[in-house]
Write a structure and sequence with these properties.
mainly alpha; MetI-like fold; 13 helices; flat; 317 residues; 2 domains
């Protein structure tokens, strides 16, 4: 009597294995697109769609009531000859050129101080970061009270020293510097990023520098600054982008005054769109700002190859 020999099912061929692998890859891709679909839908509906619509509106004359009328490049020609446009661009650029370097310097200094072993380190980190998460409107109202000519805290403190404080927000010479000073309120957000970058620098570099006889100042310029250039570059780009889009401070605190001294570009854009109902002109202003920021960012990015140090890469000659 012979025993039955169990039959072994044939193994799938290469074609079947490839088909099964393709199905699994397709399923994973579909699942990924499904989970990302809320963001994708929101991007097309609330970002890309309005951007394309504003590009079309920029070539029209539209007061939000009557139907838009195509006028070609007239909005851009008017923009080039508008003195208030150039004034708002000047104010915005001056604010960016002064506030961004101050944020970088103060943020770096605070990060260096917090990177040392001091008592209450966690408290100081939280205290410096907390103002940056507060509401912009609430902060603007607070600083408007601090800058008040009659009962503002700054002028009260100056009066104790026998100094008559200026009319901060009421003087064309002091209004913009006051907003630059106010911007330092949120320097803690950058401090946390600098602190993370400092803690990522290998301690071996400092130990080797000490063996070679380098003092603290030399270590700072030869190790800390080069190793922090990627963080500095990130803060520079994002800081300029945010500084060119200032709106809340001027809208709440000064309304663009006095004498257009704080007429920021976005505030002028807002006025044209929602006060003067020149939606076509406002769209043209928006696209000019978009192109300006894009070109400036590309210039900064191209220049980064000459001063930003990345491990494993050589700097350009």
């Amino acid at each position: 009597m012979t025993s039955a020999v169990p039959t072994v099912p044939p193994s799938p061929g290469p074609a079947a294995a490839r088909h099964s692998s393709s199905r699994r890859a397709l399923q994973r891709n579909l699942e990924g697109w499904l989970f990302a679909s809320p963001w994708i839908i929101g991007f097309f509906l609330w970002t890309l769609g309005p951007m394309l619509a504003s590009l079309v509106i920029a070539f029209t004359k539209w007061d939000l009531i009557t139907a838009p009328t195509y006028i070609g490049l007239d909005n851009f020609r008017t923009l080039a000859n508008d003195s208030l446009t150039w004034q708002s661009l000047k104010v915005t650029l001056v604010y960016a050129v002064t506030s961004v370097p101050l944020h970088i310097v103060f943020g770096m200094v605070l990060a260096l101080m917090l990177n040392t072993h001091i008592r209450g380190q966690r408290f100081y980190r939280t205290a410096f970061y907390l103002p940056s998460v507060l509401s912009g409107v609430a902060v603007a109202l607070l600083w408007r009270w601090l800058f008040s000519t009659e009962f503002g805290l700054f002028n009260v403190l100056l009066s104790y020293a026998g100094i008559t404080g200026p009319s901060w927000l009421g003087d064309p010479k002091w209004a913009l510097p006051s907003l630059v000073l106010m911007s330092l309120w949120g320097v803690g957000a950058g401090t946390i990023i600098y602190l993370a970058g400092l803690q990522g620098i290998p301690t071996d570099l400092y130990e080797a520098a000490e063996v070679d006889g380098a003092n603290g100042w030399r270590q700072f310029w030869s190790i800390t600054v080069p190793m922090m250039t990627p963080v500095l570059f990130f803060q520079l780009v994002t800081g300029i982008i945010f500084a060119l889009q200032v709106f809340t401070q001027a809208f709440i605190m000064t309304s663009g005054g006095p004498n257009n001294a704080t007429l920021f570009y976005l505030l002028y854009l807002y006025r044209n769109a929602f006060e003067y109902f020149r939606m076509g002109y406002a769209s043209a202003l928006a696209w000019v700002l978009f192109v300006f920021i894009l070109v400036l960012t590309l210039i900064l990015y191209r220049s980064s190859g000459y001063w930003v140090y990345y491990e494993g890469e050589e700097k350009k000659a």
